[in-house]
What we know:
Layout: H1 3-7, E1 9-13, H2 19-35, E2 56-63, E3 66-77, E4 80-88, H3 97-111, E5 116-122, H4 126-134, E6 138-139, E7 152-158
Parallel strand pairs: 4-5
Antiparallel strand pairs: 1-2, 2-3, 3-4, 5-7, 6-7
Amino acid sequence: MSGREAERIEIRREEITSPIARALIADLNAELSALYPEEGANHFRLDAEEVESGRGAFVVARAGGRTVGCGAVRRIDPATAELKRMFVKRAARGQGIGRLLLAALEGEALLLGARRLVLETGERQAEALTLYGRAGFVRIPAFGPYVGSPLSVCMGKDL
Length: 159
């Protein structure tokens, strides 16, 4: 991606059931399945109603008119939201798109009334761990479906 395209990154809400969203999620699932082939290592579940207006949001990043990434946030209790399905296509990485997606999703979490944002990533995702650490997330005990998942790394941040 050229510097000119990087300047034109736009992030906006998208229906999680749209063809664009489904294609990005399929790319993400394929990458995670290759990285974590172990049985039960992946937590792909995110239902459309979890990202409906007032409960969450699903966003897509575009650069130069091309889709380059996505992410979601869902409220898990009145004060807490969970970051889900963060993904930037490999060819678009290193351009700051992940930081922009994360900032947009933090804004969506605040609109939901969340005061805390939590997430789960994997120990083999060094780039993701670095991104979240630089954004102020710290490791927290495993929560929800990630309890007992040996490859999961859970993180949280007060908003």
